[in-house]
Each structure stands twice: as structure tokens, then as C-alpha cells.
Amino acid sequence: VGHAVLAINGAEVNGRFTADGKDVLEFLGNPANYPVSIRFGRHRLSSNEKLMLASMFHSLFAIGSQLSPEVGSSGIEMLETDTFKLHCFQTLTGIKFVVLADPRQAGIDALLRKIYEIYSDFALKNPFYSLEMPIRCELFDQNLKLALEVAEKAGPFGPGS
């Protein structure tokens, strides 16, 4: 963790080859593959790393809300470091939505509200979804991906900063 990742059309690049074994130079040399989406970023967290981060944050959130001098504090809404910001939105029912973002990324509050809306529409209204279980719903996944793409395109210092 901590070094940059290059992805072409969503496939992570390692040296000259993508994660699915395609030669990058051949891929870029074929006009049929255009337009090409090239993205630089950090390695994605593994499932275990996400669970560890969520567990640690939940504890910090609980401690923060109890130690806050503000009566009725809702807990930690944002943790900021020089490499990322962790944003948290807690619903009235106690569900927490957490987003890790670039410290310069704008519009994260609107993204968190949109994620809550997507969760409400595609998980809570789904008769096959059980609370506190992984969400296995294609419409949820599609709408969440779209919301993240919109937020990513807004970029640093975009609307809502």
C-alpha cells in the first residue's frame, strides 16, 4: 500500500501487462480499443483492510462522541491526513457511511447523501436484503458505481467544496 497504480479501461497495469494478461502496447496500438480510459491512483484496500479500518473508525467514532464537549455530539464527521480524508455520515438509525477520499476532493458530503439514497432505494426496499448483511443487488452496484464516477469527475475543488 502507498504506491501508485495505473489502470487502463479499469484493468490494473503491472509493468507491460494488465491484470488480465493483455499487453498494454498491443492494446494501445489497436484503434478498436479507443477511447481509452487511463487512470492513476492508489492500490485499492483489500476486504480485510476495509474491515480493520471500519472497526478502528467505529471505535474512534464512539469515543469521540462520548468525549466531545458538545452536548449531543454526533461523533466524528471527518478525519483528515496529508494523504486522505475519511468522511462519515451517520443516519438517524445509526448506520454509518464512510468514504475515503483525496484530501482535495470536493463534494463528498453530497456523495455521502447520494450513497444513503441509493442504499435506501436498492437495499432497504429489496425484500431479499437482510440488515447487516452484504448487499448483493446489481441495481445497487450500478447506481453506486455511477455516483462514484460522477463524484470522481467533479474532481478536486469542484462544486460543493
TrEMBL record:
<protein>
    <recommendedName>
        <fullName>Trafficking protein particle complex subunit</fullName>
    </recommendedName>
</protein>
<comment type="similarity">
    <text>Belongs to the TRAPP small subunits family. TRAPPC4 subfamily.</text>
</comment>
<dbReference type="GO" id="GO:0031982">
    <property type="term" value="C:vesicle"/>
</dbReference>
<dbReference type="GO" id="GO:0000139">
    <property type="term" value="C:Golgi membrane"/>
</dbReference>
<comment type="subunit">
    <text>Component of the multisubunit TRAPP (transport protein particle) complex, which includes at least TRAPPC2, TRAPPC2L, TRAPPC3, TRAPPC3L, TRAPPC4, TRAPPC5, TRAPPC8, TRAPPC9, TRAPPC10, TRAPPC11 and TRAPPC12. Interacts with SDC2.</text>
</comment>
<keyword id="KW-0333">Golgi apparatus</keyword>
<keyword id="KW-0256">Endoplasmic reticulum</keyword>
<dbReference type="Pfam" id="PF04099">
    <property type="entry name" value="Sybindin"/>
</dbReference>
<keyword id="KW-1003">Cell membrane</keyword>
<dbReference type="GO" id="GO:0030008">
    <property type="term" value="C:TRAPP complex"/>
</dbReference>
<dbReference type="GO" id="GO:0045211">
    <property type="term" value="C:postsynaptic membrane"/>
</dbReference>
<comment type="function">
    <text>Core component of the TRAPP complexes which has a function of guanine nucleotide exchange factor activity for Rab1 GTPase. Plays a role in vesicular transport from endoplasmic reticulum to Golgi and autophagy. May play a role in dendrite postsynaptic membrane trafficking.</text>
</comment>
<dbReference type="InterPro" id="IPR011012">
    <property type="entry name" value="Longin-like_dom_sf"/>
</dbReference>
<dbReference type="GO" id="GO:0005783">
    <property type="term" value="C:endoplasmic reticulum"/>
</dbReference>
<keyword id="KW-0813">Transport</keyword>
<keyword id="KW-0931">ER-Golgi transport</keyword>
<keyword id="KW-0472">Membrane</keyword>
<dbReference type="GO" id="GO:0006888">
    <property type="term" value="P:endoplasmic reticulum to Golgi vesicle-mediated transport"/>
</dbReference>
<comment type="subunit">
    <text>Part of the multisubunit transport protein particle (TRAPP) complex.</text>
</comment>
<keyword id="KW-0628">Postsynaptic cell membrane</keyword>
<keyword id="KW-0770">Synapse</keyword>
<dbReference type="InterPro" id="IPR007233">
    <property type="entry name" value="TRAPPC"/>
</dbReference>
